[in-house]
Write a structure and sequence with these properties.
Elements: E1 14-18, H1 51-63, E2 68-72, H2 82-90, E3 97-102, H3 109-118, E4 122-126, H4 132-139, H5 145-158, E5 164-169, H6 178-185, E6 191-196, H7 214-224, E7 227-230, E8 240-244, E9 250-254, E10 267-270, E11 275-277, E12 286-287, H8 288-293, H9 298-310, H10 316-319, H11 332-335
Parallel strand pairs: 1-2, 1-10, 2-3, 3-4, 4-5, 5-6, 6-9
Antiparallel strand pairs: 7-8, 8-9, 10-11, 11-12
């Protein structure tokens, strides 16, 4: 059937599945170390959706118009035997794109090949700086740049291409690395994407003056290597695309703070314990695990998802300027980026 639409006529086409809330990084813009230390309690294993439950939900979402699935976390590669889930999801008719976002620290060449063989099509790998001192300070667990660069190489060697490389830019922290990152990934075939520092969750100490606007990033790169804008690949894509005029490839800008794209958002998010979230900045979810484990039929679950999506009216980023007080929001490590 055709995709269901919400109150703003936005279709449901993308499903982001967070397979774990655990992460081996403590990035300053997501899970700052001072708040998520060794004693922090993650979800117990029995509360996580099983691979069978995730597959069942994915099949239901596919009947509602979902064509693209992205696996996220936390760090998804911490979930044991993740390849089994990839294989299950890749076998669902109608799913045209199956991708994953990872910090890359656990991606060996063998693991990349197994994921590719299981049916994963693409990888997005996070890298916030090429400067080792800066990067170690941002991930707060002393992981070197070389490990992530190796992961990008492993993804390429396994055929998980084009690799998208995500850089979250925070003023005064790593904005000096915009040009070095752009220079490094020119002519590599990889797509570097610059992401504005976002007010996701309530623990990352977000301030507007630490946001480097996407327009500023584009202007800086364009002054060094001229850029031309490129049309989106498909409706609902969040990245503004730019191609180097000299043929060196392209970059992307994800400017959800200064240039919100709520009106085109077609994403639903599933947390590790089965909560359905309709926005990255949502304050509460809808419990699908209760239905799964309570004996609900596929039709009943499908009807529940339809009811949630058709009633969806969230436009957080469009309305951000209207908020006069901090809003309670789910943390990013529970529903991915």
């Amino acid at each position: 059937m055709a995709s269901v639409t919400d109150v703003w006529d936005r279709p449901l086409t993308d499903l982001r599945i967070s397979v774990t809330d655990r992460c081996n990084f403590r990035c300053v813009y997501c899970m700052p170390k001072e708040l998520f230390g060794p004693s922090f309690a993650f979800l117990p294993r029995q509360e996580l959706l099983t691979f069978e439950e995730i597959e069942r939900l994915a099949r239901i979402f596919q009947t509602l118009g979902v064509r693209k699935i992205r696996l996220t976390g936390g760090e998804p590669l911490l979930r044991q035997e993740l390849e089994r889930l990839v294989e299950r999801l890749a076998a669902i008719p109608g799913i045209e794109d199956l991708a994953m976002t990872t910090n890359g620290s656990l991606l060996s060449l063998e693991r990349a090949r197994r994921l590719k063989s299981a049916g994963l099509k693409r990888l997005t790998i996070s890298l916030d700086s090429l400067n080792d001192e800066t990067f170690r300070a941002m991930n707060e667990v002393n992981v070197p740049v070389s490990r992530v660069l190796d992961a990008i190489g492993h993804a390429e060697a396994a055929g998980l291409t084009p690799v998208k490389v995500n850089m979250v830019v925070k003023r005064g922290v790593n904005d000096q690395d915009i040009l070095p990152m752009a220079h490094h990934f020119r002519f590599t075939g990889h797509i570097l994407r610059f992401i504005e520092f976002m007010d996701v969750g309530t623990t990352n100490g977000w301030r507007m003056d630490e946001v480097v606007p996407g327009s500023e990033i584009v202007a800086k790169i364009n002054a060094a290597w001229p850029l031309d804008p490129v049309a989106p690949e498909r409706p609902g894509d969040v990245a503004q695309r730019y191609r180097y005029r000299d043929g060196a490839g392209e970059i992307g800008i994800i400017a959800s703070v200064t240039a919100p794209f709520c009106r085109h958002c077609s994403r639903a998010r599933l947390s590790p314990e089965g909560q359905l979230y309709l926005c990255l900045f949502a304050s509460q979810g809808y419990d699908l695990r209760r239905l799964l484990r309570g004996g609900a039929t596929d039709e009943e679950i499908r009807d529940a998802v339809i009811a949630q999506w058709t009633g969806r009216r969230v436009r957080y980023s469009d309305e951000r300027h209207q908020h006069t007080a901090p809003q309670p929001k789910v943390e990013m490590f529970r529903i991915g980026g």
